[in-house]
Amino acid sequence: MRKGLSAELARLSDMIRFVDVWCEEVHVPHRHCHSLRLIVDELVSNVCRHGAVPSDGTVSLTLMQKDETVAIEIRDAGTPFNLLEHTEPDTALPLRERPDGGMGLLLVRRLSKGLVYRRENGENVLTITLDQKTTRETGKFFTVARHPATKRQRQSTREV
Hints:
This protein is an alpha+beta fold. The chain has helices at residues 12-25, 30-50, 103-111, and strands spanning 2-6, 58-66, 69-76, 114-120, 123-135, 140-147, 152-159. It has one domain: Histidine kinase-like ATPase, C-terminal domain (Heat Shock Protein 90, 2-Layer Sandwich), CATH 3.30.565. A hairpin with a 2-residue loop joins strand 2 (58-66) and strand 3. Helix 1 packs antiparallel against helix 2 (30-50) and helix 2 runs antiparallel to helix 3. The chain is globular and about 45 Å long.
């Protein structure tokens, strides 16, 4: 399912509603839909604030689901920006010593299984995949996330 809107912060709530409707239509569990909403909110708001999208430009969002994998594709005609080239903020530093920015992108990296960026026909194209499963036998929510930019793998388990 695809939606394109003008690249204005005022339209962000329309994008989030689009995600909610899609999640309901394809029966994405609420906790997974919440992750999708956070990712879309962060990335689309960054495009609107920092992307230098032309005044008549749009941000388009495509949502796809196959088996246990959900993919989000975000396209915009703004300034080239590959978030995979940016280092994660040092969260060990006290807040006052950290440079501004980067925490939203860190959140996106942590919530996603994979991130792929490409520049295509004058557009930034970012594809984010999430692979989240609930194991009924254990009652645990299990996520394995691989972050290509940092080449590390994180595994976590929490009660649902």
